[in-house]
């Protein structure tokens, strides 16, 4: 099932090229979409038949006529994986004179939830004299509270998957700071529930800047897969329904600037794009 937020945080189910407004079927509160989403996630097996029934009598709209929004608007945390593809690990180490960039050494890091934006919105770059990069990533949302779980158990805790861009400003500051500016975490276009994607690590992921294909990889190239990322994260902190883990980017990371359109696509999940501009007070 493809679960989307649209038009001022209504709840939608996407089928083919239409979105069905199923908000009323689950007592959805559009004024508090994160709380409503977490309630839906925690009781999804109970709500799923009601959602399926609602598809037969709900209003629907062409996707081209609605405004999609970030599918997880305000998680308690976003955990991200650095250098989690072999080709990107080699790329980074070559760029920085064989520095020991490995995910085993660096571990996961946090991004600010306030950096989230949705499809069609605008990434606002804070500096005119520094490089800002795109990073294409597969992300997933936690389905139930998790602490000290194993990778073998982790699949039971993944509610669904979506595409995410981890925007980064280059510099000497800590990674979390450089990746947490407002608008630096575009995500979407919707959540695809895990029952529809048996193995996410065979999907193809691509990212374009304007018409230039910058990143193109199969997720089988990942080092820590989704379940390993979840295991490692749960060893450090308690994960809650609605929390996000994003799994890192492959080679091909490159600069973006004002006027660019950045588009990401992941097989069986979907695609979305964002625009790029400078902040009004960019320095």
Q: Provide the helix percentage.
A: 10-25%
Strand content: 25-35%
Radius of gyration: 18 Å
Q: Could you say what the CATH topology of the largest domain is called?
A: Fumarylacetoacetate hydrolase, domain 2
CATH architecture of the largest domain: Alpha-Beta Complex
Decide which structural class fits the backbone: alpha+beta
Average pLDDT, all residues: 94
Instruction: Write down how many β-strands occur, each being a DSSP E stretch of 2 or more residues.
Output: 20
The biggest sheet amounts to: 12 strands, mixed
List unreliable stretches of 5+ residues. none
The tally of domains stands at 2
List keywords for this structure.
FAH; Fumarylacetoacetate hydrolase, domain 2; 20 strands; alpha+beta; 7 helices; 5-stranded mixed β-sheet; 283 residues; globular
What does it look like?
The structure is a single chain. The protein is an alpha+beta fold and 283 residues long. It has two domains: 2-69, no CATH class; 78-278, Fumarylacetoacetase-like, C-terminal domain (Fumarylacetoacetate hydrolase, domain 2, Alpha-Beta Complex), CATH 3.90.850.10. The chain contains seven helices and 20 strands. Strands 1, 2, 3, 4, 5, 6, 7, 8, 11, 12, 14 and 17 form a twelve-stranded mixed β-sheet that branches. The chain has a five-stranded mixed β-sheet with strand order 9-20-19-15-16, with no helix packed on it. It is globular and about 50 Å long. The N and C termini lie far apart (43 Å). The relative contact order is 0.20.
